[in-house]
Amino acid sequence: MGGSDLGQAVTSIAVIDDHPAIVAGIKAWCGAAEPPITVLATGAGLAAAWTPPGTQADVVIMDLMLDQAVPVLSDLRRLVDSGRQVIVYSMRSDDRTVLTCLEIGAHTYLTKAEGDRHLVAAIRAAAQNRPYTPPKLAGAIGTDTSAGRPRLTPREQNALLLWFRCESKEMVASKMGVSTNTVNTYLDRVRVKYAKAGRHAATKAALLARAIQDGLIGLDEL
Known about the structure:
Elements: E1 3-5, E2 8-10, E3 12-16, H1 20-32, E4 38-43, H2 47-50, E5 59-62, H3 73-81, E6 85-90, H4 95-104, E7 108-111, H5 115-127, H6 135-143, H7 154-165, H8 169-176, H9 180-196, H10 204-213
Parallel strand pairs: 3-4, 3-5, 5-6, 6-7
Antiparallel strand pairs: 1-2
Helix pairs in contact: 4-6, 7-8, 7-9, 8-9
């Protein structure tokens, strides 16, 4: 997905929001970014992400309400289940909604009060499948009291931390001096342990949230 300009990858997005001023603001921020971020499609509903050119966007920026009385969590789940990288960008700031979106598989969650710096950084991170934790998300994770912390071995914990820091599992394998298959085994074991504790973490973002919640990894370590 995306294109290239003089050999440099160009990040592209689809913006799903029913407030024209918000869409205009995101377009301006992305155009001013260095390098610029291409806005491929915009729309007041999810159709813009499911039809060309929105289908080619690296990242989907999605409001939660979309002129609805309740958050459109089912639409978020459909996008995530189809393999899309989704950033939730919403006026809602309650911890329950934030953590629910992360558990569904959103790459990250930003409130509309967090501004251009965090949104642009989050888009870059999502396009490269790197975790990004803006202030509101960090606060929600830090106050979560979910029970069921699994016990990880030192090698599992090390693999987890390196995976959050590195761009690929191959890089993790190189740093650990093991094969990529072994890294996958460590990460699969971590996911199984969380699943057995009733705290599923199917995505990298969700797994990062779990690790921070449980004190396995600190934000200053990323």
